[in-house]
Write a structure and sequence with these properties.
Number of domains of chain B: 4
Helix content of chain A: 25-40%
Oligomer: heterodimer
Shape of chain B: elongated
CATH topology of chain A: Rossmann fold
Strand order of the largest sheet of chain B: 11-12-13-14-15-16
Helix content of chain B: 25-40%
Largest interface: A-B, 55 and 51 residues
CATH superfamily of chain A: P-loop containing nucleotide triphosphate hydrolases
Order of helices and strands of chain B: HHHEEHEHEHHHHEHEEHEHEEEEEEEE
Structural class of chain B: alpha+beta
Distance between the termini of chain B: 79 Å
Strand content of chain B: 25-35%
Number of helices of chain B: 12
Order of helices and strands of chain A: HHHEHEHEHEHEHEEEEE
Number of strands of chain A: 10
CATH class of chain A: Alpha Beta
Radius of gyration of chain B: 35 Å
Number of domains of chain A: 1
Distance between the termini of chain A: 41 Å
Radius of gyration of chain A: 18 Å
Strand content of chain A: 25-35%
């Protein structure tokens, strides 16, 4: 551990100490890489880490693909491939990511590498390979089942590679996992206009939980929070910090 | 004179004076308890070829010679076995361990070696004159010429050598004279080995067979480092590598892998094989491992390229590893196709080949995911060409918003599109928020009512 002297001011000192703790936790690799920012409201929720790189994030629910692509669009600001891994069961249940749809939303299909594994076991191996590669800037993995052991392995791989790992699943998986955050993504019936999403942060490393209702700007895949109906402070107290997103 | 005949006999049958060519009925008369199996010349040929590959342990240049011979070019190889006698002894021992009979001969000229092995005692041909007492059949004169030779009392090669060559050619044909010339120093036809030896290869042979995964992996690491050193000296990078594991029982396990960019990184090459070593059947062990790079291209030391060299190399490494794991048809990159039929707009190409960059059609009416097979669905829609109001089927719900129709006609100039009806595409949002891409095939007023299908989803 390097013993660089701490900065004298309070804020700098805090940041330096936090960095040391994170290095002890084995998340040092992610520190040098700026996190993915989804907008100021999300930063408030996720802490200063944003959506950390060199980390796994679990996105489940019927609209997980759209949220995943919003993250992909933000995460592809660094050079590298978008590696999309799924097995044949996933292909027949949900279909393939489709370049004409991606390009309209600002994701360059030239950076897409599609991995079609024959079955779940081969898929897990391929995902690990992709996460561990420095060539992959974002890896989307449609793993239907991943327990603590597998996610731990994938977490170690993504720390080597330094990319962003997104585990995409159709259904909620209650099993424990080593992912940094876990989201439930449902479509929001918003009538005309751009599609809406209800994002529920079910678990995060910093202990945050909460729900956000957003509209997705389809040309940029930016997430714009909908006006909140109730004041977050006045809402019923939950077990953890509750939050809501304000416009702007 | 019909009926099956003996094709080959074993030593026990030979003691009963059964010879190949004898009719089966005659053979059965001589030995009623004879066991007969149908001949399988194709399988024999395959086995002989496998045996030839196995012989690459002594020389990289090996060829199949006829239906029961192998020819090895051992120029420059013999000293590795302690001289020519040592080489022949090693060949004899190895064949004996395989349980195969052989007679090996070694000579300066291929035909001489062949005759010495088949008609002589075998071993090293001491002197070209040693062939003299062998019968003329060794030169394969053919049916007619053989008969003529016999009638004239020309029985040995020496008898032929005494004749003037021109008379020989006139009487018995050019082929026989040419073969006699071959024995004495005429130009030999080029030797065509089974596989041209790779310019770059590394090998390890063990005195005791290795039967553990860890041992093989460790050896492969060393092979990869040796191979890459040789490649680096020559300024080359491997495009294809082949690992051959020679098992004690004579089987050869061959693993092959390609690289999308020339490479001489030992770790990279090793990774292409490592996971495939896991499931490999090692039998009683491996005694020889050979790693070859049959295809190489020039690769400069530093690879000074424009923009993000390390990046491109990392991409190539990732693609190669995934391809080695899953196969080229499972690691893909998209390529645009100039077709306005949506299902034809994308071609998925193996990622090892650089995809054609191209303008992609961009429209927000295109979904994020396309189903591989569209789903039939029932729909309630405004006649004649309104959007659906309600979907029923695998995915059901009331439609709260829709955009469309976008009419796409079939590509009538393609024969497979004959009979396809015009299609109207809609993007619909259901009451639970899901968004789908659905299509109505056909128009109202046609003989068959329109059919609805789901093609993709927007989330």
């Amino acid at each position: 551990m390097n013993k660089t002297p701490l900065p004298t001011d309070r804020a700098g000192r805090l940041a330096a100490l936090r960095a040391r703790i994170r290095a002890l936790e084995g998340r040092g690799a992610g520190l040098a890489i700026p996190p993915v920012r989804l907008g100021p409201a999300f930063d408030r929720l996720l802490g200063e880490d944003g959506l950390a790189r060199a980390a796994l994030h679990e996105l489940a629910g019927p609209a997980a693909t759209l949220f995943a692509l919003a993250i992909v669009r933000a995460g592809l600001d660094r050079p590298g491939l978008l590696v999309w891994c799924l097995d044949e069961a996933g292909v027949s249940a949900r279909g393939l990511p489709w370049p004409p749809g991606l390009v309209a939303r600002g994701i360059d299909p030239g950076r897409l590498l599609l991995v079609r594994a024959p079955h779940a076991t081969a898929l897990a191996g391929a995902v690990e390979e992709a996460l561990a590669s420095p060539a992959a800037s974002v890896v989307v993995a449609e793993l239907a089942r991943a327990g603590l052991g597998l996610t731990r392995r994938l977490q170690l791989a993504v720390e080597r590679g330094g990319g962003l790992g997104l585990l995409l699943r159709p259904a909620a998986d209650p099993s424990p996992s080593a992912a940094s955050t876990r989201w439930w993504v449902a479509p929001l019936p918003v009538g005309e206009g751009s599609p809406g999403l209800r994002l529920e942060l079910r678990r995060a490393r910093n202990g945050a939980e909460g729900v956000a209702e957003v509209r997705v700007d389809e040309r940029t895949l930016a997430l714009h929070p909908l006006a909140t109906l109730a004041d977050p402070e006045a809402a019923a107290p939950g077990p953890a910090q509750r939050w809501a997103l304000a416009r702007g | 004179m019909g009926g099956p005949r003996l094709f080959a006999v074993n030593p026990a049958a030979a003691t009963l004076r059964l010879v190949p060519g004898l009719r089966l009925t005659d053979a059965r008369a001589a030995c009623p308890r004879l066991r007969v199996l149908p001949a399988a010349p194709e399988e024999d040929a395959r086995a002989l070829e496998a045996l030839a590959l196995w012989c690459t342990r002594w020389s990289p240049r090996v060829a199949v010679d006829g239906t029961e011979g192998l020819m090895l070019d051992v120029l420059g190889c013999a000293h590795l076995w302690g001289g020519e006698a040592g080489l022949l002894a090693a060949v004899g021992r190895a064949f004996e361990q395989l349980g195969l009979e052989q007679r090996a001969a070694l000579a300066d000229r291929r035909l001489a070696a062949r005759i010495w092995a088949r008609f002589g005692p075998g071993g090293i041909l001491p002197d070209p004159r040693a062939l003299d007492p062998l019968p003329v059949e060794a030169l394969e004169p053919g049916e007619e010429a053989g008969e003529a030779l016999r009638r004239l009392g020309l029985r040995t090669i020496a008898d032929l050598r005494r004749l003037p060559r021109s008379a020989l050619a006139r009487r018995f044909g050019l082929a026989l004279a040419a073969r006699l010339d071959l024995l004495e120093g005429g130009a030999e036809p080029p030797f065509v080995p089974l596989a041209e030896p790779a310019r770059f290869s590394a090998r390890i042979a063990w005195p005791e067979p290795i039967a553990t995964q860890a041992g093989i992996e460790c050896a492969c690491g060393k092979l990869a480092r040796d191979l890459c050193r040789a490649l680096e000296r020559a300024g080359q990078g491997a495009r294809r590598v082949v690992l051959g594991l020679h098992r004690v029982d004579g089987q050869i396990a061959r693993l092959e892998a390609g690289t999308s960019r020339p490479s001489r990184d030992p770790d990279h090459l090793l990774r292409l094989f490592r996971h495939r070593l896991d499931g490999l059947e090692l039998g009683f062990g491996v005694e020889l491992a050979i790693l070859e790079a049959p295809e190489t291209v020039a690769l400069s030391a530093e690879q000074p390229e424009l923009g993000g060299t390390a990046d491109a190399r990392a991409v190539a490494v990732l693609v190669d590893r995934l391809t080695a794991r899953l196969g080229a048809e499972r690691v893909l990159r998209p390529e645009p196709v100039a077709s306005h039929v949506p299902e034809r707009a994308v071609r998925w190409c193996p990622a090892g080949v650089e995809p054609k960059p191209g303008p992609w059609p961009a429209s927000l009416l295109r979904p994020l995911r396309l189903f591989e097979r569209s789903l039939p669905v029932r729909a309630l829609a405004i006649v004649p060409d309104g959007p659906p109001l309600r979907l029923d089927g695998p995915i059901a719900g009331r439609v709260i918003a829709a955009s469309g129709p976008e009419r796409i006609l079939p590509e009538w100039w393609r024969p497979e599109d004959a009979g396809i009806r015009p299609r109207d595409f809609f993007r619909v949002r259901l009451e639970d928020g899901r968004e789908l891409w659905c299509v109505r095939e056909g128009l109202w007023g046609e003989a068959a009512p329109p059919a609805w299908r789901l093609l993709g989803s927007f989330a």
